[in-house]
């Protein structure tokens, strides 16, 4: 049997909690690997933590300044050598969402195709871990450098992921404080023709804020999955929040829907997080007609606005926990600071922009804990996928020939 097929068969056949053990045995047998480890990125994206049978039992590896960290941030294989042989650090990624690093040590430098094989195993492992999270806590526990608050537990389980990439776009998002977030949240969903992006800022603190946000996000998902328009989605979510809280609590939200073929954007601003656009080197804040937050009054009517995304555009969304952070002299982290942060991160991929801006935010606090939770989401718009359009045209032509 082909050894690549044998390894992939092992990954598909082992129990969810035994993925690493199965892969380790297969790589030892078929590639002579001396060691195999899986490092998971923690919630704050500052550490890589080994997957072990017991949480918190292995020393973390910093993302900054390490070979493994470079593989994770650059999403490229990195290598080093020691007395045990050649060690490869291979990014473990699921559809653009970097979740960790696979570390494989071989006794000697192999031919380049071997590294390519191992890279494919790392990708396959990522998909298996993603599925395994439904049945085991092992990999979720490995991501934690400390215990999450209950509110943070609820919020992280609510997220679609931390990154997503397709030919038309790339997305990345991050929440802070990662282990104690409560009201901020983001959501996204892509189909063949549309990309929906939702930014949420629920009022309040702790578990009550997390409960409010969970209700709002799930109400919006329920409405979106019913296939109705963006304005009606906002109205149904507004009714759901008002029915529960009778106007005592509300949710600020920004709902966006991108047409993947044309770049046209439909938007509903319900007391939203702020949106910035980087186009041709110029940063501009996009201002909408701000409507009432969800749940403020019963039966609020919402209207949709339209704008156009162009290939090369970058959109950065920030919650009030970002732009209201006080600086060293008490001044807020205002528009000028955000413009500078967006420009300074121009060369970074979308998945790394939120973390870079939040790092700068932490430096402004000089190590102090955040007074409010913060959310940053970055979206890079590449435009329609020519190959997909061509495939669609061919399919249409074939269907037409068949009908004729």
TrEMBL record:
GO terms for molecular function: phosphatase activity. SMART domains: PP2C_SIG. It comes from the Bacteria. InterPro entries: Bact_Sigma-Reg, PPM-type-like_dom_sf, PPM-type_phosphatase-like_dom. Residues 166-381 form the PPM-type phosphatase domain. This is Phosphatase. Keywords: Hydrolase.
């Amino acid at each position: 049997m082909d050894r690549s097929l044998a390894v992939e068969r092992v990954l598909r056949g082992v129990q969810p909690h035994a993925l690493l053990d199965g892969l380790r045995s297969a790589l030892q047998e078929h590639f002579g690997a001396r060691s195999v480890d899986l490092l998971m990125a923690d919630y704050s994206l500052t550490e890589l933590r080994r997957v072990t049978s017991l949480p918190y039992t292995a020393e973390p590896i910093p993302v900054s300044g390490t070979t493994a960290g470079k593989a994770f941030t650059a999403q490229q294989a990195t290598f080093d050598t020691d007395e045990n042989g050649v060690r490869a650090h291979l990014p473990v990624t699921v559809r653009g969402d970097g979740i960790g690093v696979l570390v494989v040590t071989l006794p000697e430098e192999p031919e380049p195709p071997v590294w390519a094989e191992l890279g494919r195993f790392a990708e396959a492992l990522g998909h298996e871990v993603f599925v395994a999270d439904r049945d085991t806590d092992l990999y979720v526990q490995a991501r934690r450098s400390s215990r999450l608050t209950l509110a943070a537990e609820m919020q992280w389980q609510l997220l679609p992921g931390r990154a997503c990439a397709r030919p038309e776009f790339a997305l990345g998002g991050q929440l802070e404080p990662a282990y104690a977030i409560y009201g901020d949240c983001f959501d996204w969903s892509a189909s063949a023709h549309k990309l929906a992006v939702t930014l949420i800022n629920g009022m309040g603190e702790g578990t009550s804020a997390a409960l409010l946000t969970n209700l709002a996000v799930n109400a919006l998902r329920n409405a979106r999955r019913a296939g109705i328009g963006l304005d009606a989605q906002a109205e149904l979510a507004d009714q759901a929040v008002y029915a529960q809280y009778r106007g005592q609590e509300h949710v600020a939200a920004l709902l966006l829907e991108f047409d993947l073929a044309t770049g046209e954007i439909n938007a509903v601003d319900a007391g939203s997080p702020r949106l910035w656009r980087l186009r041709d080197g110029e940063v501009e804040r996009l201002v909408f007609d701000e409507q009432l937050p969800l749940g403020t009054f019963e039966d609020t009517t919402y209207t949709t606005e339209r704008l156009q995304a162009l290939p090369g555009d970058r959109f950065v969304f920030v919650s009030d926990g970002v732009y209201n952070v006080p600086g060293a002299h008490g001044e807020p982290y205002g528009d000028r600071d955000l413009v500078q942060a967006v420009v300074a991160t121009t060369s970074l991929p979308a998945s790394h922009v939120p973390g870079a801006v939040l790092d700068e935010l932490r430096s402004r606090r000089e190590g102090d804990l955040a007074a409010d939770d913060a959310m940053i989401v970055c979206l890079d718009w590449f435009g329609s996928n020519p190959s997909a359009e061509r495939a669609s045209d061919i399919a249409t032509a074939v269907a037409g020939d068949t009908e004729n």
